[in-house]
Write a structure and sequence with these properties.
The chain has 73 residues and is mainly α. The protein has a domain of 50 residues. It contains 3 helices and no strands. The radius of gyration is 23 Å and the shape is elongated.
Amino acid sequence: MVSDALYNQLRATAHMHGLESVEQVLEIWQAREDELWQRRETVRRIDVLRERLHAAYGEMPDSVAFIREDRSR
């Protein structure tokens, strides 16, 4: 159960952002939460991959010098 005070706050937030309903506020909030979770999960998976590669191959050299050399040819 949502208290009257909270519902009124949500309704004021909806109005302030040009939305028609509390439901729209909640839908937008949920979409942002889902996106944030997905970004965090992607970063976590990148970190796991980076750790796996480091364990298998050690420190990788910086490729910037190689790229610059290729471009200067």
